[in-house]
Amino acid sequence: VHFTPDSSPWEREHLVTRERDRLAAQLRRIAAGVRPLTPDEKRILRACGRSKRVTLYSYGGNGAKIWWNGLSSRVTRLKNLTVFHLAEDSSHALAGMVQRTMELNCVIQDGDFWLSDPQGSIKVDCVLWQGTQDGMA
Length: 137
Description:
The protein starts with 8 loop residues before the first helix and ends in a 7-residue tail after the last strand. The strands form 2 sheets. A 3-stranded mixed beta sheet has the order 1-2-6. The chain has a 3-stranded antiparallel beta sheet with strand order 3-4-5, with helices on one face. It is of the alpha+beta class. It has helices spanning about 10-30, 40-50, 60-75, 90-95, and strands spanning about 55-60, 80-85, 105-110, 110-115, 120-125, 125-130. Helix content is about 40%, strand content about 25%. It is built from 4 helices and 6 strands, in the order H-H-E-H-E-H-E-E-E-E.
């Protein structure tokens, strides 16, 4: 938000409120796009057409591999798509961390991804299925 030197307090408050509302709407749109599912080609194409970068995180055993094997050849042309798959042992370790109320800390360092809670920490292993490593968000 940029103010001019002669902006009144009301104008400043109005600009700040408008910017806050714009950012909140943008966050709601992003949150609406985060879904635990295996998206089809149409949904991925739409997301890649609307976004500068799209990162998918897949998890699960054979179901995720079957989904990706059926889809991968049709989305390889999408240069702004990165797909990671969480290793099965990492998925199980993450499931063990789930509690009714949780507070997780995340550290990404030297390409390693760690999650920790008060009881301990785990290294989350991700396998790159498509794209580049810098697509990790």
